[in-house]
Amino acid sequence: MAVRQMSEAEIDKTAVDTGKELSAQPKVKVKIPLDVETKRSLENKIEAGQKVEWPAEQVWVNGYQYLIQKGKETEVPQTVAEILEQSGLI
Predict the structure, then answer these.
(1) What local confidence, expressed as pLDDT, does residue 79 receive?
(2) Range(s) of the domain holding residue 82
(3) Is 10 within the bounds of a domain?
(4) Helices (H), the chain
(5) Please, what's the largest Cα pairwise distance for the chain?
(6) Predicted model pTM
(7) How many domains does the chain have?
């Protein structure tokens, strides 16, 4: 069986359509764990006026990306919550 490659336009359309579908889904509150020591260190740096890059996890669904910060409660579509749960992150 031959595998057909998608064009860039088809990939973009799939990502846009997926984003619309995910936006319409019920939202679920999730919190990806972040160890206490790391969280304190980041918060101290922020208080000191330093720029920090907060740790996050990426979730991709058909080309549509969610970047979810660790240690912070976040609302995400049901599908994204299921992926996080299946991967053992929540």
Answers:
(1) 97
(2) 27-86
(3) no
(4) 8-24, 36-47, 78-86
(5) 59
(6) 0.82
(7) 1
Q: Which residues in the chain show pLDDT less than 70? A: none
Rounded-to-integer distance, Cα 14 and Cα 55, Å: 28
- The amino acid at 41: S
A 10 A CB-CB count for 11 gives 13
> Please, what sign has the CA dihedral across residues 36, 42, 43, 48?
positive
Per-residue model confidence (pLDDT) at position 4:
86
Beta strand pairing status for 74-77 and 27-30?
Answer: antiparallel
- Residue 17 covered by a domain: no
**SS3 call for 69:** strand
The count of other CB atoms within 10 Å of the CB of residue 28 is 17
Residue 67: inside a domain, yes or no? yes
Q: Find residue 37's DSSP bridge partners.
A: none
Side chain identity at 56, as an amino acid letter?
Answer: A
Does the residue 31 lie in any domain? yes
**What DSSP character marks residue 32?**
B
